[in-house]
Amino acid sequence: MVMAAGLGKRMRPLTATRPKPLVEVAGKPLIDHVFDRLRSAGVKRAVVNVHYLADALEAHVSHRVKDIEVIVSDERKQLMETGGGLVQAREWLGDGPFVCVNSDNLWVDGPIDAIRQLAAAWDDAKMDALLLLVPLARANNHGGQGDFHIDAFGKIVGRRKPGRLAPFVFTGVQILSPRVIRDWPEGPFSTNLFWQRAIDAGRAWGVVHQGLWFDVGSPPAIPATEAVLADG
Question: What Pfam families does UniProt report for this protein, alphabetically (predicted)?
């Protein structure tokens, strides 16, 4: 699943006339970078949710995405946030674990394809969520204080506490089991609800990304990202 329904408020004024996934970085829209990574990992089918300026985004994925079947989950009537977006799209996500990717981040694979790395690490017997994490010190353009703590084996053992730092940042790339999509509240809500259940059950894990990752959340992040990519 590709999460593409957000309002892109932090990316204003660039999102006044286009949805955030269509903002260009390094010569192509953010969502095209995501589909490049999905394609290289062998993904053949993707659900994309749409809300803000949905017509433009739906037209783009319909005409520009090649070699991957795209199903649009329509949130025009109400933005469901990340958790609600998963609930609305659940009928298309199947009965097995699936990749879920935010469309507003950009990463470069290291020695290992990041999505294939996640897939290789997935253990259905002990996992409900497997998140691709990047060390806070390597989270380009990221102004936050980290998200998660993991143990020596990769199990997520806690979230960042107020006033403290956490050593790992969520990259927006993950594998989830449909088991987590249950007992949801009415209306929009965050995937944090599903994550916390998995953490509490000892079934949330992390894999550390070996390549580059960029938080492309605001206009100044675009030239900063492009400068690093140009050096590569």
Answer: NTP_transferase
